[in-house]
Write a structure and sequence with these properties.
By secondary structure, the chain is α+β, with helices and mostly antiparallel strands. 42% of the residues lie in helices and 19% in strands. Helix 6 crosses helix 9 and helix 7 packs across helix 9.
């Protein structure tokens, strides 16, 4: 991992190879997977991203192109380099998505329709096939390929370890047993033969609007192949917002029919994803956050699907 962000002077020089009439270049300290800089010109605003890992943006660029061809509103990629000579990083330049995110500004009078349209667009994202499950393999530049060959391999990779780490949290014996039982229930409900593209970090900070109108979805840095319920599970499991989830689900179900079993499977997938964080963050400062989220999701499953 490249631990040092490129200096502004270097970024300015790189930006000038793509853009004319630059007014300013500033670092955007948000997100962890890439270094991001806002470039303002006389004709518009752009974002220049530099990879932290020794990997190319090629698959992310490919995903943008495939989604735009499928009618999904995502930022337009101006250009990219596998490896920039000045920084040693992969570089990606995208146009700014107009408007603001729901997280930054909540338009209460139009929120229902904005989220409903986001749900419709999310369903379109899930029409894009991926060859395999889990993180997109960035070593393969001309196709979307998951790291695991089956959902079972993805689901079971850390499961035993994560269930064992429950002993390091203040769960009761009954709660630990309940989580184990729910994971046994989850696997056959969630197992699918073929993976689809999922956003991977779908929340209100990535849904943009302006003047009361939906504009699009940003940030494909966490894309992966998975069950099509993955993004819905992220939205409800990590953010526990029932009203906004109902709006999103309404739009999604206009495109994809979901059964009661699908909705239950979504809740179980949310718990599975939280369990993965419990296992990974057992010694981290954020462990209490993930413990609270797990107890909330257990309560939610008990209240809505028993």
């Amino acid at each position: 991992m490249k631990n040092t962000a490129p200096e502004l002077g270097v970024v300015q020089t790189v930006a000038e190879t793509y853009l004319d009439d630059i007014i300013s270049v500033t670092r955007v300290v948000k997100g962890f997977s890439t270094y991001v800089y806002r470039v303002i010109t006389q004709t518009g605003t752009y974002y220049l991203r530099f990879s932290k890992e020794d990997e190319s943006f090629a698959t992310e660029v490919l995903a943008h192109k495939m989604l735009r061809a499928a009618g999904v509103s995502v930022p337009h990629v101006i250009d990219f380099e596998h490896k920039n000579a000045q920084t040693g990083c992969s570089v990606m330049l995208i146009e700014e998505m107009p408007g603001r995110s729901i997280e930054d500004e909540c338009p209460t009078t139009h929120e229902h329709e904005i989220l409903r349209e986001a749900g419709r667009q999310l369903a379109r994202i899930h029409r894009i096939p991926v060859d395999g499950f889990g993180w997109i393999d960035k070593r393969i530049h001309d196709a979307l390929t998951g790291e695991k060959r089956s959902f079972d391999a993805y689901f079971r990779e850390y499961l035993e370890h994560d269930l064992q780490t429950l002993n390091h949290y203040p769960f009761s014996e009954k709660e630990r047993s309940r989580i184990t039982d729910l994971m046994q229930t989850a696997q056959p409900l969630l197992t699918v033969r073929n993976a689809v593209l999922v956003h991977g970090d779908f929340d209100i900070s990535h849904i943009f609007h302006s003047a009361g109108q939906y504009r699009g979805i940003i940030d494909l840095g966490e894309i992966r192949g998975n069950n099509h319920l993955y993004d819905l599970a992220t939205f409800i499991g990590f953010y526990q917002d029932n009203i906004r989830y109902s709006f999103l689900l309404e739009g999604y179900c206009e495109t994809v029919h979901l059964t009661k079993e699908d909705l239950y499977a979504t809740e179980l997938l949310a718990l599975f994803m939280i369990l993965r964080f419990l296992g990974a963050k057992v010694n981290a400062n954020s462990r209490e956050h993930w413990y609270r989220l797990a107890t909330k999701q257990l309560d939610r499953i008990r209240a809505t699907h028993q």
